[in-house]
Design a protein that fits this description.
The chain is about 50% helix and about 5% strand. With about 375 residues, it is mainly alpha-helical. Helix 3 (about 20-40) packs antiparallel against helix 4, helix 4 (about 50-65) packs antiparallel against helix 10 (about 165-195) and helix 8 (about 110-135) packs across helix 10 (about 165-195).
Length: about 375
């Protein structure tokens, strides 16, 4: 399975592959911004969280499956609700793990719910695999993840032992990893900018200088947007996409800060707590992008006080793609629109409560009123 994961990283998450999907991202984000323009003309409040979640689902489906799917294609509850169900099931402690004799009784109904949810996704992925087999891509067309997996499955001597079950499992991982995490990070970033008008104005001023007021942001602009990059870093410090990193296992007996940890212990790293540690960060709970002006702290986990994407070989393979999407969408939203809260709500009154789970989405959707600011 590790070899298959390496193949996915090479074929879908490499810089070359990420760049190949640039036209798709530009198209989808353009449609996304148009939907806000319509609301701006009407002076209407918009559920920003819901629209960001839909954008994330559309882009993820196009990268993994080659086309968009409607919510009803998966289940009547839709993509976001189904993935939230999976996240909730994975995060809920199972009493049977602590009292093994109760495991078979399924007192919490977790096994039943997991099987039901699993069948929904299994049927969906079976349909998609069949569609790809019966309608293969022509030479020169951009291949999605399922195309790549099918090529590897049908090739001998590659060293990859790929079966249909592997394709379904990896497709699920890629969807879950890209949909929930990116949309949550965008949501938090925009909410923090609305809460901090000074920071919002500073980002918009940078965008006016680099991009101008006659056009939307292009991905090629992102490297020149230094303050925007600080905003995204600060957002991921406070709200890492995965507050608890993927579990690790200790390879040998060791002692850490006076605590004895035996070999083969399961180790869970709390990235959320590390990002808010007052021993590492001044005013740790405050949103201060300027803290990144000095120093070379980046997303790659070289500095252990900032490990939003993990570190080393076990770091998140989708980091580059995720950061690109978050920066691009946040830049468009704050460049194209000014934002205010409905019903006279003050920025300081915005609810910033987190929802419990493997990811940390907002407990309450972000609803705001956009005003178009680019020159027509």
């Amino acid at each position: 399975m590790a070899l298959i994961g390496a193949a996915c990283t090479l074929e879908l998450l490499s810089s070359h592959k990420i760049n190949s999907f640039k036209p798709m991202r530009r198209e989808e984000v353009g449609l996304f911004i148009k939907s806000f323009e319509e609301a701006a003309r009407a002076g209407a409040a918009v559920d920003v969280s819901a629209k960001v979640a839909l954008l994330s689902a559309d882009m993820s489906c196009r990268m993994v499956f080659g086309k968009k799917y409607m919510d009803k294609d998966l289940d009547e509850r839709g993509f976001k609700a189904m993935f939230q169900e999976v996240m909730q099931l994975a995060a809920t402690p199972n009493i049977g793990d602590y009292i093994p004799c109760l495991l078979g009784l399924d007192l919490q109904g977790l096994t039943r719910r997991t099987k039901a949810t699993g069948k929904v996704f299994d049927d969906f992925f079976e349909k998609i695999i069949d569609e790809h087999i019966h309608n293969p891509k022509e030479e020169g067309q951009t291949k999605d993840l399922v195309d790549v997996m099918l090529v590897l499955m049908g090739s001998e001597g590659t060293g990859y032992n790929i079966e249909r079950a592997s394709i379904k499992a990896i497709s699920f991982d890629m969807l879950a990893g890209s949909m929930e995490t990116s949309s949550s990070s965008i949501d938090w970033a925009v909410a923090e900018l609305i809460r901090h008008p000074r920071v919002m104005k500073k980002v918009q001023s940078e965008l006016e200088k680099v991009v101008g007021m006659e056009r939307m942001v292009e991905e090629s602009d992102l490297e020149s947007l230094e303050y925007l990059n600080m905003v995204v870093k600060e957002t991921l410090r406070l709200y890492p996409a995965g507050p608890l990193l993927v579990p690790h296992e200790s390879m040998e007996d060791c002692t850490v800060n006076g605590f004895y940890i035996p070999q083969k212990s399961r180790i869970i790293v709390n990235a959320w707590a590390i990002g808010r540690d007052p021993d590492s960060w001044t005013n740790a709970d405050e949103f201060l992008p300027e803290r990144f002006i000095e120093g070379d702290i980046d997303f790659r986990g070289k500095h252990f006080q900032y490990i939003s994407f993990g570190s080393g070989r076990r770091g998140c393979p989708g980091m580059e793609l995720g950061i690109t999407v978050v920066r691009f969408v946040v830049a468009q939203l704050v460049h194209c629109f000014d934002w205010e809260l409905p019903d006279g709500m003050l920025p300081s009154e915005l609810n910033m409560t987190e929802e419990f789970g493997l990811a940390i989405p907002r407990a309450k959707h972000l609803v705001a009123i956009p005003t178009y600011r680019l020159r027509q």
